[in-house]
Amino acid sequence: MMTASLPVTPAAPALGLWQRLGVALYRRPGLQLGLLLGLPLLWFLVVYIGSLATLLAQSFFTFDDFTMEVSRELTLANYRQLLQPANFDVVLRTLLMASAVSLASAVLAFPLAYYMVRYARGWKKGFFYVAVMLPMWASYIVKVYAWTVLLAKDGMVYWAYQHLGLGGVMDWLMTLPLLGGNSLTTSHLGRFAVFTYIWLPFMILPVQAALERVPANLLQASSDLGANGAQTFRHVILPLAFPGVVAGSIFTFSLTLGDYIIPQIIGPSGLFIGSMVYTMQGSIGNMPLAAAFTVVPVVIIALYLTGARKLGAFDAL
Amino acid sequence: MHSDQDRAPLWLRLLAYGGIGFLFLPIAVIIIYAFNAESAGYSFPPKGFTLAWFPAAFARNDVMQAIGLSLQLALLATVLALVLGTLAAAALYRREFFGKDAITMMLILPIALPGIITGIALLSAFRLADIPSGFWTIAVGHATFCVVVIYNNVVARFRRLSYSLVEASQDLGADMFQTFRYVVLPQIATALLAGGMLAFALSFDEIIVTTFTAGNEVTLPIWMLNQLTRPRDVPITNVVAMTVMLITALPILAAYYLTRGTEDTAGSGK
After folding, report:
1. Is the ipTM value over 0.90, yes or no?
2. Which residues fall within 8 angstroms of residue A249, CB to CB, at 6 or more apart?
3. Which of A173, A191, A294, B54 is deepest in the core (most CB within 10 A)?
4. Among A26, A139, A287, whose Cβ lies nearest the Cβ of B205?
5. Is the whole model's pTM more than 0.90, yes or no?
6. Interface of B with A in 193-252 (CB under 8 A)
7. Domain extent for A139
8. Is residue A63 part of a domain?
9. Contact B141, B122 (CB under 8 A)
10. Which domains does chain B have, with CATH numbers?
11. Would you call A51 an interface residue with chain B, using a CB distance cutoff of 8 Å?
């Protein structure tokens, strides 16, 4: 009998603990996913979703006007208080500002974005991108501060007006009901300018991205078919880039809606949704009413997002 | 939508460069007024050039403390966000599963919702749990909204990274840490750095969430806000404003140059 030598399979090299663990994880994608996602998921559920849930719960708590204390008795009183006419004014004022700021940003952003996409070449392309991104990310509070410097009584803007001989125009503007105020820093116009400045880059970038996707041959086709520049713009470029404008307006609108620092520093008195929430919880300590009030911007933004989705804004992001 | 044959009409060039001028006007103002000799007020043109306010500002205890606090917070928030954001990106970039969209949405929510909602929500939760406001409550808030910045940068890089490289590394006997250290990390390093810089800048000058979670702590932006509501030391404020601007602008520029032209990452043979 012959002892046939069995084909020897080389012994698999012994795997270390971490190697075996790696293999085990590779075979169980679910476990791997769980290990990777566990920590961030836990953090967001506890810290963020947990906080939002607490906020919502607080909006049903009772605030005692006499003792100024919050008790955990559930009530709908806070939501009923929301419906007071004075609060409608606050909401309306904020909505008006948010719409005006979005519109102005779109008007200012479009030519800039159009130039960036169509004419900026080489180093200029990078220059324009950085020139939009840098002011966008630069410190919010410093930018607001810079505007108080600019708009101050003897500041740069007044100086420019006087030297252009437009002092009278400025005085006239300040007397108008929806624009005016005692001075630029306490006028609606000043507040509007600062809001528009602060959120403008958030409009430029989505519009630029949308324009970037407009195929060049459509423009050629349009002019081959005899359209002039204005017609091409009106019937080809604008409809194709419009979702980008809507996408940008999501930012300008919702950022204006929730802001409470600019209304506090620049412009006439009169609360915004943000400042209302801030004063409610801060100086008055009425956290339940403040919590109920935060539901207002959330609902408005949710409605806005629904509309924006219908207009194709999410594909433009 | 490029066209190379024609030149922009004058009015369009004016609008484009005018827009850029508008964006940079306040930044220029901050830089000019930091060197203004005037000791109160904002009159234009400036009253003369001086460097005197710089040593004066940096000799102030409240200013230095605020800068120190903001730097520490930004560092801590960035590190926390780097860990959480990278883990989330690694988990989400190549898998489809139930609830994935909801999770992505949840990561974006802290910066998509107005800051005031995030701020007041955190405050109400901390109060309910009897956690006193301070350094750690600010850091937790900052880390939460910084995660999305890291996530976006890293997930974009991961999508260009070919997963077969990871498999090859494991086939060749590398353990998990070796694979991460020698295969994954070199490819995502610049994305991590860029995301980290943006997160740092975001945290360093965040004010809206911070006012709710800070308690009695005074971060640099809160110091600025206090000066705005009760203007006292105009020249000191001007110098601090320029400092904040520089501390945030430099990481942003660095992040831009780090992520420029990374479309062709080595080895991503897809």
Report:
1. no
2. A102, A105, A106, A203, A308, A313
3. A294
4. A139
5. no
6. 198, 201-202, 204-205, 207-208, 211, 221, 224-225, 227-229, 237-238, 241, 244-245, 248-249, 252
7. 86-316
8. no
9. yes
10. 53-259 (1.10.3720.10)
11. yes
